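Weekly structure sync, notes
Attendees: PL, DS, HV (note-taker this week)

Item 1: Transcriptional regulator with XRE-family HTH domain
DS walked through the input record. Source organism listed as Desulfomicrobium macestii. Sequence as pasted into the shared doc:
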Amino acid sequence: MSEKNARRIKAWMTLNGVRQADIAKEMGLSRTMIQRFITGHSTSTRVYEYFINLGCPREYFVGRTEARRAA
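Item 1 (cont.): predicted structure, written out as tokens:
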């Protein structure tokens, strides 16, 4: 995943008051897993769908395996 998209996701999270720690806690995952997902170092259809359900724009995930599977 591009660094640009990771920055876009982080900016979206900030604007919407979404914190990595809160996502991790709610999903029963580590904060590190969420960070690795955001930066594209880890894949997870479950985390991808969580972000989409929160309202994060799909175009921020262009090129990701999860986005291609969900299409």
